[in-house]
Write a structure and sequence with these properties.
single chain; about 160 residues; alpha+beta; three-stranded antiparallel sheet
């Protein structure tokens, strides 16, 4: 399919910046949701072309295409877009984490061996004697015949 160069460049720039691309399987969609002024069909066909050359891997789920850049694809887009080696896709950048941003587990600060819900459950079970069995007034009644055995009313 013939895709205008400005659309192809916009698609490749977005793909290189993010490292991934998502498109709904709707060939008649007039515009891709993330790339302005580019039809969804152009995005799908450009990604199909990159997939056939091994520059992206494709996943399809729930009427959406998901494409991920491969290492060869990163190198190809660097050459196509004339980018230096220092610029990398967002999927290869490590997120910066601060210590205050991390949430600590709930009982972690008290140390190991602290009281929790399971301890109260253990004390309840400690009083339970398994060998005691059912009480003397327990008399089960079985009205059989239903289900997989002998049929209802069978002699």
């Amino acid at each position: 399919m013939l895709i205008p160069k400005k659309n192809r460049v916009a698609i490749y720039e977005y793909l290189f910046k993010e490292g991934v691309m998502v498109a709904k399987k709707d060939f008649n969609l007039p515009q891709h949701p993330e790339i302005s002024d580019v039809p969804n069909l152009h995005v799908i066909k450009a990604m199909q072309s990159l997939k056939s050359r091994g520059y992206v891997t494709e996943r399809f789920a729930w009427r959406h295409y998901y494409w991920y850049l491969t290492n060869d694809g990163i190198q190809y887009l660097r050459d196509f877009l004339h980018l230096p080696q220092e610029i990398v896709p967002a999927t290869l950048k490590r997120p910066v984490r601060t210590e205050s941003a991390r949430a600590k587990p709930k009982g972690f600060s008290e140390g190991m061996g602290g009281k929790d819900d399971r301890d109260s459950d253990r004390t309840y079970r400690k009083d339970y004697d398994k060998k005691a069995g059912a009480g003397s007034d327990f008399q089960p009644e079985f009205h059989g015949g239903f289900g997989r055995g002998r049929g209802f009313g069978a002699p």
